[in-house]
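Following up on my earlier message about pyridoxal-5'-phosphate. Here are the inputs again, as you asked, copied directly from the submission form:
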Amino acid sequence: GLAKILKEEGDQVACIIMEARTPPAEGFLEGVRNLADQYGIVLIFDEIVTGFRLALGGTQEYHNVTPDLAAFGKSMSNGLPLAAFLGKREIMQIAEDLTISTTYGNEALSLAAGLATIRELKEKNVFEHTWKMGQKLMDGWLRLGDELSLPLSVNGLAPIGAFDFHLDDAQLKQDVWTLFLQEAALRGVLFRRGGLNFISFSHKEEDIQLTLDVCREALEIIQTALEKGDVGGHLRTWDIRA
Ligand SMILES: Cc1ncc(COP(=O)(O)O)c(C=O)c1O
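Thanks, got it. Here's what our run produced:
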C-alpha cells in the first residue's frame, strides 16, 4: 500500500504521521522508516498513547525504530497536563525562528511532575510490572473466552491491551457490550467499550484478579443471555456507546 502510493506520489508527500499502538507485522515499521528515508519524507510518530506506557522511550524504543519527530503526552506526567513535541535537531531548529506564544508556557508544575514521573518509572522498574500485569489480564480474558465459548478476541500490547466481541449482528454486539459494561460497573469495575486498558503501577496482582473475577461474572451472564437469545432483556441501562 504505502510503497505503491509513494512510488506514484512520493515527491508530493511532506510527512508520514502514524501511531504504532498494536503489534505491527514483522518488519513493517522498519519498512516505513526506509521508505521515508528513500523519499526524503519526515516520519512522525504520535506517541500520545504509547509514550511512557510501552517503555520509557515509547513505541520507538520498544520497536527500535526512530522517527524524525514525535509527540508525547498523557501518561508522561502521571495526570498533570503536559505534552511534548520533539525530534531531530535540523527540523526542530526551524521553530527557533518562529514566534510561538503560549499563555501557560512558563508553567512549571507539570514539568516537575514529568520529571518526577520519569524518575519513578526508572527507579521502580515500572514497565516490568505493567507488562506483567497487562499480560495476566490479557491471558485471563483469552482463557475466559475459551472456557465460556464466547466470540471474544484480545488485541494490543500488554500495558495497553483490549478485547472485543465478534458478533456479526451489529445491534446484538452493541447490546452485548452494554450488558458487559453494565454488569462490570455493578461489580465496581469500569470498562470502556473496546477501549484500551491502561495498566498503571498501582494495579497490583489482586486488582487484576478482582478485575478478571468481575469479567467472569459478567461474561457468564452474557453467555446465558446469548444462549437464551435474551441479551436485550438483561439491560437495565440505556445504550452505552463509549
Ligand atoms: C493517539 C492520540 N493522538 C492525539 C490525541 C489528541 O491529543 P490532544 O487532545 O491533546 O490534541 C489523542 C487524544 O486522545 C490520542 O489518543
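One observation from looking it over: Residues 19, 46, 48-49, 73 surround pyridoxal-5'-phosphate (CB under 6 Å). Hope that helps, and feel free to reply on this thread.
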